[in-house]
Amino acid sequence: MKHTISVLLQNKPGVLSRVTGLFSGRGFNIESLCVAQTLDPEVSCLTLVTDGEDKIIEQITKQLHKLIDVIKVTDMGELDYVEREMVIIRVKAEAETRAEILRVVDIFRGKVVDVSPKSYAVELTGSSTKLQAVIDILRPIGIQEIVRTGKIAMARAKKV
Amino acid sequence: MKITGAQALMQCIEEQNVKVIFGFPGGAVIDIYEALMKNDKLTHVLVRHEQAAIHAADAYARVIGDVGVALVTSGPGATNTVTGIASAYADSIPIVVFTGNVPTALIGNDAFQEVDIVGITRPCTKHNYLVKNPDELVATIREAFHIARSGRPGPVLVDLPKDVVNAMVTFPEFKPVRMRTYRPTYEPHPGQIDKACRAMLKAKKPVLYVGGGVIAAKAHEELTALARKLHIPVTMTLMGLGGFPGTDPLSMGMLGMHGTYFANMAVAKSDLLIAVGARFDDRVTGRVDAFAPNAKIIHVDIDPTSIGKNVAVDIPIVADCQHALTAMNAWFDRHEEFSEQAAAEQHEAWLDEIRAWKNKHPLGYIEETDIIKPQFVVQKLHELTGGDAIISTEVGQNQMWAAQFYHFNKPRHFLTSGGLGVMGYGFPAAIGAQMAAPGHTVIDIAGDGSLQMNIQELATARQYKLPVKIALLNNSFLGMVRQWQELFYDKHYSHTDIHVAPDFVLLAQAYGAVGLRATKPSEVEPVIREALATDNTVLMDFVISREEGVYPMVPAGKATTEMLLV
Q1: What confidence tens digit (pLDDT) does each residue in A77-105 have?
Q2: What is the ipTM of this complex?
Q3: B288–chain A nearest CA distance, Å
Q4: Exposure string (b/e) for B348-381, b if CB count within 10 Å is 16 or more?
Q5: Residues of B with catalytic function
Q6: CATH class of the domain at B2-170
Q7: What residues in B contact A59, CB-CB < 8 Å?
Q8: The CATH number of domain A82-155, selected from 3.30.70.1150, 3.50.50.60, 3.40.50.720, 3.30.830.10
Q9: CATH code 3.40.1000.70 for A2-78
């Protein structure tokens, strides 16, 4: 089962390679990984998506926590959370498909970020399922290139 | 007042109560060696290969029960330490390794003798550092020692570029290290202790399964008290030997692949397995689904990743073994439903059952009169040293025979590369142990394959006049691999015959050490007596039965009850 894991780490050189080295060394899977500074410049937040049975996920969180530079590990699956991913898709745009592409992008609340005589580059954000839906719809029109960021996630604030 | 980075390094090592460091100089650490020469508090042991420096520091750490230190140069000096570091990591031994490096301006330039040792050792250290800013040097070294010795101990590497070592730095007063991201759990959860103790109270067939964590936590007394109070039989892993007295009637010796018949049977039939500071290694469990199939499992470990990794656990307790065992002992002292008398009666039938297994298949070997059996040598060593020697081993058959037949009564007397299984560990380890315990008898129980992997350290032993003894169990084979080839590969002895070897007696003499040889059983005792009476490094070459095997043996991947016996 897929899990989104959020890791707060010390913003120091080599920390990312400790995390990725742990995954490769122990044969764990990384499907996507996103990392950037937090509000505190000494701390980075890393969001990764991994796949495995509960026992594996338990080992992953424990092993991550064991790294000296790791501050906090949260398996987002245990919480209510929001997740977003961003994609830029370059799609073939010819006279007869331009309007259709714009309609699709509009429906999914995306926008065109680059235009050339034969293509559009469109930007979309959302959950992974939403992005997959856009990709599936644009594919028959002719996708030339895709770049995805990987998922980021944040736990929802308590309602009371 | 400002001092050089090298001087600060010396002071940092001193303030950690380290007396001895093991090392080998080179271009990138000349400045450190300059400071070392002017330091009169630290003793430096010059090894002949950097790997030996790490094994020696590892053994030194084990014997004194604190951190060992090694110092090597950049590039090849640093890469030569990797095996030793990986071994210390697998065995959770606290060492701090200082490596020199090229000046910071040259890092990443493929400079002469430059390697990314921090990158190379990342997966085999508990933590490591490259110090780029001289102002962070002292704090980093203090953190390195703190990490090495606290929690689940382990090796920490600190990489020191030449310009950092030469920079002028301040030396702030020592304060205990506090880290935001690293706070090991020492105290057990009282609720878990309660659950565990209630399970122990009910158990009819309990077994204590003890690992190196008990020795690391200095918890052998608490463990011994618990076992005796509750009349629970004890089995130890290779790393746990000495954690409970090996000659105690409750001791079942080692378990696992070359464990005793009765220890493996007891675990298999137990209804409660109390794992303390052990990690359910594959050499212990054999086929996992057949390991202690009827037992409820309590697992005490300071490292949460060890719990539930290989075997599902019913009562996990994340804690330091000493704290957890103290809490358990206190629980039984406090609760009136427990009485020692009742525990003795409750476990009488179980202990009888174990005695019956022991009588059926005791640990033994077939004695012969004309050829030396390796087990006989180990028994004689035990007898003639009163069981009190510090024993190091190489890896393979020699290691298993030492583990089986030298019944360790005290912790920190058995030094072996348990997790990584490094051939060549034993002799440098003996050197480290002798530096830690100068008056003590230290013996490396060696095989001829392993010994030759670090034989150059004879020069180190001689230079520091260390009366280390090597008991070489010489079968002219890479014996353990040969044994597997015999049993599982139709006796295809592919590249395990190493009869082309030096004359070990002459070799010892060439280094200025003493060489002795025994080829008949009757010569074993006189040779050992002579060696023990000699105030010099002695190599005892015991020419043993060539195709002797280590038994019992659980074939890899089998259940631990499926043992091949003598």
Answers
A1: 889 999 999 999 999 999 999 999 999 99
A2: 0.92
A3: 15
A4: eebbebbeebbeebebebeeeeeebbbbbbbbbb
A5: 50, 112-113, 162, 480
A6: alpha beta
A7: 305, 308-309
A8: 3.30.70.1150
A9: no
